[in-house]
Design a protein that fits this description.
mainly alpha, 8 helices
Length: 244
């Protein structure tokens, strides 16, 4: 069983990560490059040389990680523009895809239900709802230059939201009865009733139109990624069944 989980995750993550890297080049990357010009204070028509904003601007796992550093936080190292940035981003997407696929295939095994490519997409959509969509209600993805709350607070809230959403969906899908359904809905709502950490003031150097476009593009890209990983994981999970 472990061998089946491992090989399914490796193949699905490799293919999914490479595929979503191509999608990024036509969706989120142009928006980030545009936003970097505002962050650096350069005119929009004249690109500025900036290092590190790309990796602070996009996260397929967590919208909480898609923010730039909050006030007082120092920027971390990031690859330079061009080929180096593309290669590091592709590598990060592949590793992220493998991690997603490991989670999905482990869930396949624990559920004990037959899974193929089509049902894998449903699992992928559930993963998107848990890890991306639900947290984005409190912490939407933000471009470089946007103001954000403390990083530790954002990540803590994101983790609580993910755990609560996953537990709530599990209760609603894998358990029957009104009590489980109501309890699951309450768990999903709880992090949002508590409220995500917010910055002291709202604003930044990037126009709100670009920020809104980036948030939408990031969520759509994450949905595509999760669906692709779900389909690939389900397909290879079924194909590798004989090697279990």
């Amino acid at each position: 069983m472990f061998r089946r989980i491992f090989f399914t995750a490796i193949v699905a993550g490799l293919l999914g990560g490479m595929g979503i890297s191509v999608v990024h080049e036509f969706t989120t990357t142009p928006i980030i490059l545009h936003a970097e010009r505002f962050e650096d204070g350069a005119p929009p028509e004249k690109p500025a040389h900036h290092h590190g904003a790309y990796d602070r601007g996009i996260s397929l796992v967590s919208p909480a990680l898609a923010h730039g550093p909050a006030e007082g936080e120092s920027a971390t190292w990031a690859p330079g523009a061009g080929l180096e940035r593309t290669l590091f981003t592709t590598l990060a997407n592949i590793l992220t895809g493998i991690g997603f696929a490991l989670i999905l295939t482990a869930c396949f095994a624990l559920s004990g239900r037959p899974v193929d490519g089509q049902t894998g997409v449903l699992w992928g959509l559930a993963g998107f709802g848990i890890a991306s969509l639900a947290p984005a209600l409190g912490l939407p993805p933000e471009v470089p230059g946007s103001m954000a709350a403390d990083l530790v607070s954002r990540q803590t809230w994101w983790f609580v939201c993910v755990v609560a959403t996953a537990a709530g969906l599990w209760a609603m899908v894998f358990r029957s009865g009104a009590k489980w359904t109501i309890g699951g809905m309450a768990l999903i709502a709880l992090p949002h009733l508590i409220g995500a950490p917010q910055p002291d003031s709202v604003g930044g150097s990037v126009p709100p139109e670009i920020a809104a476009h980036f948030a939408a593009a990031s969520l759509v890209t994450a949905a595509i990624f999760w669906c692709a990983i779900g389909w690939l994981s389900g397909t290879f999970w079924k194909r590798f069944a004989s090697q279990g």
